[in-house]
């Protein structure tokens, strides 16, 4: 009868030895050998009539090895299940195991030893005691005006006037690199672009007024744009945003087309276009709806910011011990290609950090019964599509959207990736409910500034 023994060999590191007796595998070995005899095609013998001794001589050792190893695996799996062992990865066979010692002519007892890394017990930090803040962006009338104008432009009709009349004209232009006199530079940059008159600085905008298709201006980048727009133009032209030499280059900017968006009136037709699922009658109600949408966006950004802080609280304040030696050996030998000791040492800190976060997620999911179902994935696919296409929820009833979602539900990789993302989102939503974050009113500008400083710090 097979026996399984276990001994501790280090921190969260055990050795499991499986000993199988002849009686554990002999019957299945003889049965497998007979099946080989029935199927074997050997010249000089009819199928199924090959002598048993010849079959044993030709296939005995390999068949016996398979049966012994299958028995060992069955006993090992059964033992770990019965003992409810929570282990990392798979058991590692020890070097002393040598299946070459198995001899079909002398069946005997065999021992195989394995090393396992045990998952640790640990406690999560008390999130309620964490000192965290939740920024609350204050939505101003100016922000509402900006968004309404954006919605009007997006839903307006593009016209093609003969001349440039103001800041809202769309200019299709070609940038051609020149010298200060406007003469083309040999091998210089040439690039098409589309931009609004108001993207130029205040000193340059009047120069465009009254110009027609095929007219042009010779402009110096540094003299024609303020910082934000200048960086965008330099980047689009393939130039360095940090280079004063690049910013000092001259370009002939030729008009190829003039456009102007006719903005729709702020009436019920427009309100219905923007918010098809809402009954909005007045401009005041429309502004309230826009404000709610802006607030929801910035609340989401604030939530992301808080979740990032929660990630660090959970990761930095959760103490977990790991079977380092086992994990390093597993990293070295457990993959498709063996790794050098140097590779393992370089990868190990990042590997353990990811492993730690996985254990934390698993614990939160298990202890709080967090589940991801098919409906969650379908809704995720739908919202992802809306995001890609700039659609609103009013398009939800269109049949082709259901067809898209059904198709994505058949994509195994999409389903697996979505499950991980949704589970992670649910974990963070749970974590948010556990903290007593102090709400701090901030302006949009200060919120963005803080966000940029944070990203800079972490890069």
Please provide a written account of the structure.
There is one protein chain. The chain is an alpha+beta fold. The chain has three domains: 3-118, Trigger factor ribosome-binding domain (Alpha-Beta Plaits, 2-Layer Sandwich); 157-262, Chitinase A, domain 3 (Roll); 280-458, Trigger factor, domain 2 (Orthogonal Bundle), CATH 1.10.3120. The chain contains 15 helices and eleven strands. The strands form three sheets. Strands 6, 7, 8, 9 and 10 form a five-stranded antiparallel sheet that branches. Strands 1-2-4-3 form a four-stranded antiparallel sheet, with helices on both faces. Strands 5-11 form a two-stranded parallel sheet. The protein starts with a strand and ends with a helix. 14% of the residues are buried. The model has no long low-confidence stretch (mean pLDDT 92).
């Amino acid at each position: 009868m097979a026996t399984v023994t276990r001994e501790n060999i280090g921190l969260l590191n055990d050795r499991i030895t499986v000993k199988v007796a002849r009686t554990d595998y002999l019957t299945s070995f003889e049965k497998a050998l007979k099946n080989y005899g029935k199927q074997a095609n050997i010249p000089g013998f009819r199928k199924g009539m090959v002598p048993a001794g010849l079959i044993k001589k030709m296939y005995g050792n390999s068949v016996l090895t398979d049966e012994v190893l299958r028995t060992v695996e069955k006993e090992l799996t059964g033992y770990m299940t019965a003992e409810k062992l929570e282990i990392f990865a798979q058991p590692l066979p020890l070097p002393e195991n040598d299946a070459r010692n198995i001899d079909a002519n002398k069946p005997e007892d065999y021992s195989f030893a394995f090393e396992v890394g045990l998952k640790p017990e640990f406690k999560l930090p008390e999130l309620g005691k964490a000192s965290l803040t939740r920024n609350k962006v204050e939505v101003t009338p100016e922000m509402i005006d900006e968004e309404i104008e954006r919605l009007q432009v997006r839903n307006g009709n593009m016209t093609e006037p003969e001349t440039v009349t103001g800041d809202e004209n769309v200019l299709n232009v070609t940038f051609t690199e020149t010298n200060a006199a406007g003469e083309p530079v040999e091998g210089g940059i040439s690039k098409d672009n589309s931009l609004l008159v108001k993207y130029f600085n205040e000193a340059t905008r009047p120069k465009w007024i009254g110009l027609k298709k095929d007219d042009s201006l010779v402009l110096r980048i540094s003299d024609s744009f303020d910082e934000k727009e200048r960086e965008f133009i330099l980047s689009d032209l393939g130039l360095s945003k940090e280079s004063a030499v690049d910013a000092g280059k001259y370009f002939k900017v030729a008009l190829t087309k003039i456009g102007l968006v006719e903005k729709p009136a702020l009436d019920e037709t427009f309100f219905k276009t923007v918010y098809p699922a809402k009954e909005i009658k007045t401009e005041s109600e429309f502004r309230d709806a826009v404000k709610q949408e802006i607030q929801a966006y910035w609340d989401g950004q604030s939530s992301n910011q808080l979740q990032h802080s929660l990630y660090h609280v959970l990761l930095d304040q959760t103490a977990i011990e790991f079977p380092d030696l086992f994990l390093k050996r597993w990293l070295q030998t457990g993959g498709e290609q063996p790794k050098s000791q140097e590779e393992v040492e370089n990868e190990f800190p990042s590997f353990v950090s990811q492993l730690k976060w996985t254990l934390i997620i698993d614990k939160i999911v298990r202890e709080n019964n967090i589940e991801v179902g098919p409906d969650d994935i379908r809704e995720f696919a739908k919202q992802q599509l809306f995001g890609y296409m700039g659609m609103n929820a009013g398009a939800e009833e269109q049949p082709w959207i259901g067809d898209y979602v059904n198709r994505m539900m058949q994509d195994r990789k999409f389903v697996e990736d979505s499950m991980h993302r949704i589970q992670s989102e649910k974990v963070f939503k749970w974590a948010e409910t556990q903290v007593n974050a102090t709400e701090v009113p901030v302006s949009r500008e200060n919120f963005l500034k803080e966000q940029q400083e944070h990203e800079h710090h972490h890069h």
